[in-house]
Write a structure and sequence with these properties.
With 117 residues, the chain is an all-alpha fold. The chain contains four helices and no strands. Helix 1 packs antiparallel against helix 4, helix 2 packs antiparallel against helix 3 and helix 3 packs antiparallel against helix 4.
Length: 117
């Protein structure tokens, strides 16, 4: 199993359910401060990690997947930062965006896993 298959499986079986669960907790107003702090930490670490990957890819001139890193830095992690910062009183459109991201990730990664394995 290659690196891309592992990334696909992580997104299908870990990140998709986690995002759906966050949506559910936000909808029921059950997000607690611990979950919000974890979400903030994930967002900050994720931004740094994807920024590092962009720099690494630019240095080696392998720019095929920079768009994936940019989506994470410009869309996914800012949403995590907002939800983690607000914690209580998150407006429903932001929760809906979280669910859209969850199903987008599921579709994209399931398609790629089936296609390349």
């Amino acid at each position: 199993m290659n690196e891309h298959s592992i990334i696909n499986l992580l997104h299908i079986f870990l990140f998709f359910p986690a995002l759906c669960y966050l949506y559910y907790l936000g909808l029921k107003k059950r997000l607690n401060s611990t979950i919000c702090r974890i979400l903030l930490a994930v967002a900050i670490i994720g931004i740094l990690y994807h920024a590092f990957l962009i720099k690494q890819r630019l240095d080696t001139k392998e720019t095929n997947y920079i768009w994936v890193n940019l989506i994470h830095i410009l869309i996914v992690f800012p949403l995590f930062l907002y939800i983690g910062y607000k914690c209580e009183g998150i407006k429903r459109p932001f929760l809906e965006m979280l669910l859209i991201l969850a199903f987008s990730a599921l579709g994209y990664h399931a398609f790629n896993f089936i296609r390349y394995n």
